[in-house]
Amino acid sequence: MNDTELKKMFQQTDVPVESAPGQKEALLTQILSQSNGMEHGLSAFERFLFTRPLQTAGIAAFAMTGALWGVLGSRFPTLISALIG
Amino acid sequence: MPNDASQQQETYARLCLESYDSIYAFVVSRSAGDRRMAEEIVQEAFTAAWVSFDRFRNESSFQTWVCSIARNKLNESYRKAIRREAFEFPANDALEQLAADVPLETEVLAHETQNDVQRALQALRTPYRYVLILRYLDDFSIAEIARSMQRTPKAIDGLLQRAKAAFERVYTKTEV
Questions:
Q1: CA-CA distance, B173 to A60, in Å (whole number)?
Q2: Nearest-CA distance from B171 to chain A in Å?
């Protein structure tokens, strides 16, 4: 087979192909719904978590300290001392 | 491009539906009739087009633009497949052995040239298939193929000769 023959044969494979019925519509729906999901998927809490991570960490630490103090009472400073070493 | 989000979606949807079949056909022929691979590539191309749709400036047609994205995705997919196969570009003295190693157990009864060509291509190893598609379907020069496959022109020239030999063997067998 020479190059011209090969080229001719290969060009014959480049023919119009019809997609299965509903295939393009399904793809379009998938792409657009994914994109809408990405834009509107974050709740207010998630947005706060991702946009203000330091504040989130501070609030979490403060809340945990308060809760532990509430539960342990006067034993809380002992626990902290023990943890620090 | 329309600024309003819903208008943008509407425009994209219209262009997508209009151009889908021709992009799909373009990819099917370049994936040797492998529709599964073609569907994945087309999906990735249209998704990428939507993600950067606000940057589409009408300098080319939407179809040409998505086609070029699909071509890049195809290239990426073939390169990954070649890496997975850990294919090395050997020296020319291994030429005959490689051509003989090509799997020939293809049960092909169809006699249409299109099907025969596609089935023969599918029976070949990925680098052979891809180099033949780039050379004879896309009419790329050796230098362009070398750039696309990130190899030297000399390596591509050797690969093309082996691919042709392998294709001829498989195609002749499938024709019988």
A1: 71
A2: 11
